[in-house]
Amino acid sequence: MKKPVIAIGLDAADPVLLEKWMSQGHLKNIAKLRQQGTYGRIKNTVEYCGKTTDFAVTEPLWSAFSTGCKPHKTGYWDSFRYDDKKYDMECDLALSGYDYQEYSPFYALGDKYKVAVFDLPVTRLSQEVNGTQILGWGGHFPYTPSHSHPPETYSEIINQYGKNPILFNDDGIWWDKDYVKWLRQALKESIDSRTKICCDLLKKEPWDLFLAVFGEPHTAGHDIYNYSQPDHPLYSDLSKTGTPDILFETYENIDRAIGTILAEAPEDAYVVCFSLHGMGPNYSDMLSMVFLPEVLYRFNFPGQVAIAPGKVGDPLPPTVSKPLRNSWPGEVWVKNYEPNPIKRFLKPWTPSKFLHANQNGLASPYPLMEQSVPMGWMPARWYQPLWTKMKAFGIPSFTNGHIRINLQGRDPHGVVTAAEYHSLCDEIAEVLYRLKDGRTGEPIVKEVVRTRENPLDNDPHLPDFDLAVLWHESMTDVVDSPDFGRIGPLTHFRAGGHWNRGFVLAKGPDIQPGSDLPNAEAVDVSATILELMGAPIPNYFEGSPLVRLPVTNATVEA
Question: Is the domain of 297 the same as that of 190?
Answer without folding.
Answer: no
